[in-house]
Amino acid sequence: MALKEKAERAFNLGLAALLAENVYNFGEILQHPVLDALKNTREQWLIDLLQAFNIGDVEKYESLKSVFQIQPDLRMAEIILKRKITLLCLMDMIFAAGGARALSFNDVAKRTKLPIEQIELLAMQALSLGLIRGSIDQVDEKLNMHWVKPRVLDLRQVATLKKRLDQWTNDVKHMSTLVEHQATDILS
Fold this sequence. Notes:
Layout: H1 3-19, H2 27-31, H3 44-55, H4 58-68, H5 72-76, H6 78-97, E1 102-104, H7 105-112, H8 119-128, E2 132-137, E3 142-148, H9 155-187
Keywords: Proteasome
Protein name: 26S proteasome non-ATPase regulatory subunit 13
Domain PCI: 1-150
């Protein structure tokens, strides 16, 4: 396939992923070799935008706004894109929180750049779409989440997962040692 045709397909594929109503996983497209056709070109911003969506990076999304607003389809879908990036941001926060998945409305508001009054609605949207599972504590203004929809992970997310597994391994070793010492007391 000619490089120009490959770049056109990559661009259209990237746009389709961003504009698709129920697509909340960008890891696969980011790993696909067809996107290499856009690297170091004037369409590099599309790869950067896909990466921002993949990790729910609202700041990067905001910084790329002036560039992607030139593309008519993305400009017309600004409200949908903003909703999608904030949902992905929430998903990433829950994933990164690990075992302690209680997030305050305030923390979510800071990271998503949404007013605190909209955090409950954001969580309800994510719950209704099946992106997360858990409960909303309106009194304490906390989101208590116990599951986030699986996605293809990038290296940063794999490192987060490794850190959690290392912590879990240490906790199991500590508990094992504690049980050994307690068992000696019980058996004697």
